[in-house]
Fold this sequence. Notes:
By secondary structure, the protein is an alpha+beta fold. The chain is about 15% helix and about 50% strand. The protein folds into 2 domains: about 90 residues, no CATH class; about 140 residues, no CATH class.
Amino acid sequence: MPTPPTAGSRGRGRGALVLGVLALFVLFLAARFPYQRLLPPLLRAASAASGAQIEVGDLGLGLGWRGPHIVASGVRLRWPAAPELVLDSVRVRPAWSPAWLSGRPVWHVAADGAPGAWAGEVAGDRVAGRFTGVDTDALPWVLLGAPAPLHGLISGGVELARSDGAFTGSARLEGAEGSIDLPGLPVAIPFETLAAELAVAPDQLTLSSSRIEGPLVTAGITGTASAAGGAFAVWPIDLAVEIEAVDPALRGYLGPLGIPVDGQGRARLRVTGSLSAPYLSGLTR
């Protein structure tokens, strides 16, 4: 004889049925939601934040375990006199945040394309997330009035909050197989690994720690760049650098500048001036 259902099994069955009905209801609402109406205000907000003209090739709806989300494909960002950025897809959904209770929308944004990928939370006063495999040469450095100081693929994270129109927070960078190329350096410095921690203030960037390792040099760098207005390349800098010059030619470059180099190619120097016109001097131990 079949075993009669118990009260517990009947309760679980009813619970599964209720959940199934709710899931179908949410799916029905998502399918009928006029998400196309969200595009104009989202584009206006993104354009105001980035200063770019933004075009979207197609707009649709995606479903995931975190709920429905808007999917924009063929997204193009254009700035005057700068290469355009093309993103294969941008996925946007409401983020789980108590900020919604106070009327401050927070969105989870995931994007990927030729320039790299991003996943994180974006609000009117906050940006936090992680970027991976960003091609630094594809970024619009012309907007900062400077050529790209880094070449290669960079990953890392950022957490910024805006107050009184300015951002403060922190960022970290990680890279492999790239180079540092500043106008004041005699040659581009290739690296095999790069790691850096940055503190962001309205009028200053602070490099709290960084390390590069490559075939020419291994170096640790700390210091500041002051946002004194004008192009990024002319911001005043004050950096302390500890290096181990692997390449003999680099050792020969430092000697005539009055920077002592020991037998292992190690030296300590201070870099002032600006990124476009650095001034190198020796540091005492």
